Amino acid sequence: MTNPDNQPNSVTAIDIALEPDETMVAHAHAVNARLRSAYPEGFALDAAHHPHVTMLQRFVSAADLDRVYAAADAVFAGENPATWNLRAVEHYYIPAAPIGLAGIVIEPTAELLRLQHSLIEAIAPYTVTTGTGAAFASAQEGRDIQQSLIEYVANFVGDSSGNRFNPHVTTGVGTIAHLDEMVAEPFDVFTFSPAGAAIYQLGAFGTAQKQLAVLTVSR
Q: Among 51, 73, 135, 194, which has the minimal tally of Cβ within 10 Å of its Cβ?
């Protein structure tokens, strides 16, 4: 658990995430392969693009990262997500014409909402209002970080928590036409469970790019 940026006043864009079991991972990789076959410019799910279920995205002070890890770990110590049965219910995407960012939607549960609320409260003392591309993991010095992503992270609690929470696993990037076709197809609902949890530094398109800390998940 180390500070990814040695600058004392720096900011880090983090994602506190549940890591899904092999059932969800296999489905996510299958969708990703389909997307990339139609849009090769999209990203692959790999070591730098981990399938995950975002619980909370925030800008935090890099100097407080160890405190963030400890606070999140304490929250997970009071939960037992490995025993949860979650339902994947449909495909969806966020449009950014001419492409969109696709995902598999997970049905919200009381347990997910409770976990998210607890994480928001635990991390609140270490959050900052916003950041720049420098807060993200990037091989291009932040040039590959979308302005819409910066705004998404800054506004996550207001726009994507509580009754606005849309738990999902991001599966890749595709053209709008292809994504519309995929969303219109029947979806075979399946269940899966969380297999772990971690904190990542976010990368382009909100991917879980750089693992910062592994969180304790009771089994």
A: 73
pTM of the model: 0.90
Give the residue carrying structure tokens 């010095």. Answer: 141
Find the radius of gyration of the CA atoms of the chain. Answer: 16
Of residues 113, 111, 97, 206, the one with CA closest to residue 166 = 113
What the block records as the tokens of 134 is 């420098």
Structural domain 11-215, CATH architecture: Alpha-Beta Complex (3.90)
Q: Which two tokens stand for residue 127?
A: 């959050």
Pick from 95, 105, 104, 103: which is nearest to 177 by CA? 95
Give the integer Cα–Cα distance in Å for 170 and 87.
15
d(CA 55, CA 111): 11
Tell me the domain boundaries of the chain. 11-215
Strand extents, DSSP E, 8-97: 11-20, 53-61, 86-96
